[in-house]
Every structure is written in structure tokens, then in C-alpha cells.
Amino acid sequence: MEPAELEPTFMIGDIPIYGQLVLAPMDGLSDASFRWITRRLGSAYSVSEFVNTLDYANQKSYEKKRMLYRDKERPFAVQLLDNDAVRMAESAARIEEEFHPDIIDINMGCSAKSVAGRGAGIGVMCQPELVRDMFRLVTQAVNVPVTGKMRLGLDETSHNFIELSELAVENGAKLIALHGRTKKNSFNKPARWAPIGELKRRMTVPVIGNGDVRTVSDAKRMLEETGCDAVMVGRAAKANPWIFSWRDREEISVQEVYQTARFQLEDMVSLQPERGVMPFRKYLKAYLDPYELPRPQMKALLTTYDPNDLLGLIDETFLALGAEVDAPPIIDNSIIYR
Ligand SMILES: Cc1cc2nc3c(=O)[nH]c(=O)nc-3n(C[C@H](O)[C@H](O)[C@H](O)COP(=O)(O)O)c2cc1C
After folding, report:
1. Whose CA is nearest to atom 15 of ligand 1?
2. CA-to-CA distance for 263 and 99, rounded, in angstroms?
3. Which of 17-21, 40-44, 327-331 has the lowest mean pLDDT?
4. Which is the most buried residue in 49, 84, 155, 168, by most CB within 10 A?
5. Nearest one of 164, 114, 173, 165 to 142, comparing CA atoms
6. What is the atom index within ligand 1 of the atom nearest the CA of 212?
7. How far apart are CA 6 and CA 80, in angstroms?
């Protein structure tokens, strides 16, 4: 995917990164199967769903699933979230030893009440000493590069992304990803991209821009307008993982959608059999939306529990849409690293 003779697009510390589109970390969405699909399509590296190191330190086993990845998925970043720098650094060291990620990323953007309320996620953006300590201690605790992802600030009167990015870099951060919203901005207000350009002009490390990139032309526009090194695509990727191959949804054939959906369902069920088809439904709905299927057919697809029954229904649906259901796989499976 990335020929050795190609110049890297940018570096995260000593790790070469090829490509300008990256899947954004998303709790409940950027799991091992979806990340693998987006990496095969062109996402330049992977970032895990956030790992709450309060839970990790207390040995909650479900957090470990968030660190599953295929060896071929590298570079793979594990994103950490906490309000305690020492616990985060100790967890980072253990995670490095146990899961061997290539990068550790620090979450400074999650605005969920349960997270921000205890001073984690975006809660760290009003605690510069905590940002300093997190980067300093995590960088000291691990051998891999440390990156950070943040928002503009808490609200309009406290945009401190430049100050905090500088602090993070002074204490070891090798890349900053900036989501162009404040804690107070909800998703229905457009993200602002000008601050991404402002940050890029000030930073000596690569900057990734993020917020409201839905199409290939949005991605190109963000790159041009801000000069950022890469663009992270979040919500829009759910319905169009093909964006990472610089293609909009309307360019994707029924065949490719079918084969991707089938691979994803089988892969998700094999990785997390106990959760069955449930976590796959949100993708299936997003993949099928453009075809405007009759309601009863959509309902059947989204309420079937048995994975084999669902595979049968998917075959039937896509056959009727014109797909060839016995074509060879387009996404290779690969060994999961545990
Ligand atoms: C369902 C969901 C879960 C998210 N989980 C995370 C997360 O675990 N870590 C993180 O840094 N950001 C998380 N985000 C924020 C996204 O990474 C991204 O910054 C945000 O969605 C804006 O990008 P977009 O407009 O392309 O969606 C999440 C967003 C959504 C919608």
C-alpha cells in the first residue's frame, strides 16, 4: 500500500505516515474491523477508540478489546483518556508492553458529561498543568511517539488550543489533531477550520485537521485552506469508508458495498461473538440508506439476530440490487494481534 520508495507524507516522531486521510477515533465505531477496512482503503494510520485508563488500571477486561488490531494495520495508536497523569503514564507503559502499539494518543476532546465532568477528555483543556504532566509523564513512560487530539477550548472566550498545543509539544507531543469546535459547540453548528490553519502555522510538529469533512472535496478544501498535514474523517466515514480512497459514496458500486458489508459482519462476529450482529447494524443501515429499500425489508435487515440469517438476507438484498454474491473477497483477512 505504501511503496518503500515513496516519500512519507509526514512523520509522527520516527514513524513515517503515508497519506492525508485518517479515520478519526470514535467510541463505538472505530473498532478493529472498521479500522481495518478503512486502512485497506487508504486511511493513513489507525487510532483506537479511547481507552479510559481509570478502567484499564482497574483491569476491566472490556477495555482490552479496544486495543485489538491486526499487525498489518500498523501504524496503530492507542488513545488514552484520564484525569490523572500518573495513572495514565503507568497504564501507557503497561499497554505498550502488552499490546505493542506504535503510538500513544492523548484524548483532550471528549465532552461526554461522565468524562469531562471528572476533568478528563476536554476537561483537561482548562488544566494546563495536567496537560503538561500527561505529556511529560506519558512520554517518559513509553518508547513510542505520543500525540494529542483536542478541541478549540471550552467556549468562545477560552480558545486555548495554541497554548496547550505548544505546551504538549514542549513536553514531548509529536503531532496535534485539532477538532474545530469548542466543548460548548454541538455537532449542529459547523466546525471552524480557520483555527486549524492558525495552529498549523504555529506548530513545528504535524497538525491534523478535523471537523465536518463529509466529501472528497471537503477534504481537499480543508487541506488547501488550512495547510494541515492530514484530515481526520469521523462521522461521515460510517456511511462512506471509501472516502479514504478519495471516492465519494455515489462512486461506489453495489458490488463493493456488498463485499465490504459482508466482510465487516463476518469479521465483527468473529472478533466479538458475544455481541452478535448488534454492533454491525449501524453500519448496515448507513451502507443501505442510499438504496431507499422498502421499510419492511430494511426492518427485517435491522432486526435479525442470527448472523447466518443476516448474511442470507444481505445476499438476497444485494443480489436484487445487482451484486454478484459469489465474487472473491476484496478485503483480505489477517491475523489479529492480541
Ligand atoms: C460516536 C462518536 C464517538 C467519538 N469518540 C471519540 C473518541 O473515542 N476519541 C476522540 O478523540 N474523539 C471521539 N469522537 C470525536 C471524533 O473523533 C471527531 O473529532 C468528531 O466526530 C468530529 O469529526 P467529524 O465531523 O468528521 O465527525 C467521537 C465522535 C463521535 C461522533
Report:
1. 26
2. 25
3. 327-331
4. 168
5. 173
6. 25
7. 31
Tell me the CA end-to-end span of the chain in Å, nearest whole number.
Answer: 23
CA of 11 to the centre of ligand 1 (A): 23
Q: Tell me, what's the pLDDT at 338?
A: 47
The domain boundary, picked from 195, 220, 247, lies at: 247
Span 54-63, average pLDDT: 81
Closest CA to 23 of 52, 45, 50, 51: 45
State if residue 313 touches ligand 1 by the CB under 6 angstroms criterion. Answer: no
Average pLDDT over residues 175-180: 98
- By CB atoms closer than 10 A (0-12, 13-18, 19+), residue 100 is middle
Amino acid code (one letter) for 6? L
178 CA from centroid of ligand 1 (Å): 11
pTM of the model: 0.96
Is residue 174 domain-shared with residue 309, that is, in the same domain?
no
| 277 & 300 share domain | yes
pLDDT at 308: 95
Alpha-carbon span 330 to 338, nearest angstrom? 24
pLDDT band, very low/low/confident/very high, at 61 (cuts 50, 70, 90):
low
Q: How large is the C-alpha radius of gyration of the chain?
A: 20
Partner residues linked to 79 by β-bridges: 105
What is the pLDDT averaged over residues 27-50? 97
**Rounded Cα gap, residues 247 and 243, in angstroms:** 5
Task: Please report, as a single letter, which amino acid is at residue 312.
Answer: G
Tell me the C-alpha distance between 51 and 67, whole Å: 8
Domain range spanning residue 264?
A: 253-337
Cα 46 to averaged position of ligand 1 atoms, centre (Å): 13
